[in-house]
Amino acid sequence: MKLKYILAPIAIATACCQYAVADPGNFASRWEAGMRGGYAFNSNPVLMNRMLPDGETTHSAMSWHLRYSFSKPNAGRNASVYQGLGFSVNTFLQPHRIGTPIGVYIFQGAPIVAFSNRFSLDYEWNFGATFGWEKTPNGNDIRSNLVVGSTVNAYLNLGFKLSYALTEAVSLSGGLDLSHYSNGNTSWPNPGVNTIGASVGIIYTPGSKLLKPVSPFTSDNDFSQGVSYDIMAYGAWRKSYFPADDGAFTEAGERSLLPGHFGVAGVTFAPMWDLHPVFRTGVSADIQWSENTGLTKYVVPDTYGEDIKFYRPPFLRQVSVGVSARAELVMPIFSLNAGIGYGIVGPGETRKLYQTVNLKTYITGPVFLNIGYRMVEFKSPSNLMLGVGITLGR
């Protein structure tokens, strides 16, 4: 668990530095302070009103942010794309139960529509980790704190905001955002904590000139459409239940939480049609081996509950194959890839609708680092996807 929080930021920071120093005389710094507030809720409705013991609930969330980012004003269609590093302090107004997590994250954003030299509608995503959660004291007890099962949780955020330049150097922003906190099913419980609410911020860009924001989504007559190919390999580990149901939480007694962790490994092959400089779409063949699948026929007789044991199934009995439709947002350094697919071959519990979200960081040329997450039927956490890949033909 800790390894990915060490290696991933190093690789991402290296890619950002390569992009920035490629033309050291041509980048603008941005410093920002902001606040976010909203409504907190669990991903699973069974836990909506069971987040805390003794019948307590909490639905409040606030966070404060300090951030640095940079852009490249002479980078053509990407002139207003910014990326950087942020720090946050998060509270759910129950510090004795949930903690006051500290966040570290990378982020990227750009104008969607520029209304004038001063005014634009922007999008932004954040991805990182939050530290200092008070994890559940007893994950098997329905009356215990069922918010999170680990002290470190991943953090994902998507926001849309209006930005207005007060002066050449100072801008204000405000909008709506959605956040998700989860441990990727590496610990239990993992219902996921979501927040939806508003954000405000003030941005200082020293030495800047008031130029009209550039949207990277505008058409480009010099762009030629074509086909490219993504090949990726990944691995992870996860918690599981028996009988398996991809980690969805149900009432106590229906299933047994298995001790230890289970390995996951997979490969994907995705032909992608490059429709626009910032957009690709295609299909992907997704092959995944999961150590926790296909166990029903391999239970050791007279073992059950917390002491249940299994014979090791043949390798191919734990392999699943699915096909997914993919869409990808392509920006400098980073690409965001999302997919919806269905398992067509494999153990019964894998033949379901699944969803993937991947952040690809191009660390050198066509080689990218991947940090992703796979869910089942839009509600059940399945596994992380930590790997490397290559894009051919683009």
Put the structure in a nutshell.
This protein is mainly beta. The protein has 1 helix and 18 strands. The protein has an 8-stranded antiparallel β-barrel with strand order 1-2-3-4-5-6-7-8.
Descriptive report:
- By secondary structure, the chain is mostly beta strands.
- It has one helix at 2-21; strands at residues 28-42, 60-71, 82-91, 99-114, 119-133, 152-165, 170-182, 193-204, 226-238, 241-242, 256-257, 262-276, 279-290, 319-330, 334-345, 353-364, 367-376, 380-392.
- The strands form three sheets. Strands 1-2-3-4-5-6-7-8 form an eight-stranded antiparallel barrel. An eight-stranded antiparallel β-barrel has the order 9-12-13-14-15-16-17-18.
- A hairpin with a 4-residue loop joins β6 and β7.
Write the layout of secondary structure elements.
Blueprint: H1 2-21, E1 28-42, E2 60-71, E3 82-91, E4 99-114, E5 119-133, E6 152-165, E7 170-182, E8 193-204, E9 226-238, E10 241-242, E11 256-257, E12 262-276, E13 279-290, E14 319-330, E15 334-345, E16 353-364, E17 367-376, E18 380-392
Structure keywords:
mainly beta; eight-stranded antiparallel barrel; 18 strands; disordered N terminus
Whole-number mean pLDDT:
84
Can you give the helix content as a percent range?
under 10%
Major β-sheet strand ordering: 1-2-3-4-5-6-7-8
Proportion of residues in extended strands: over 45%
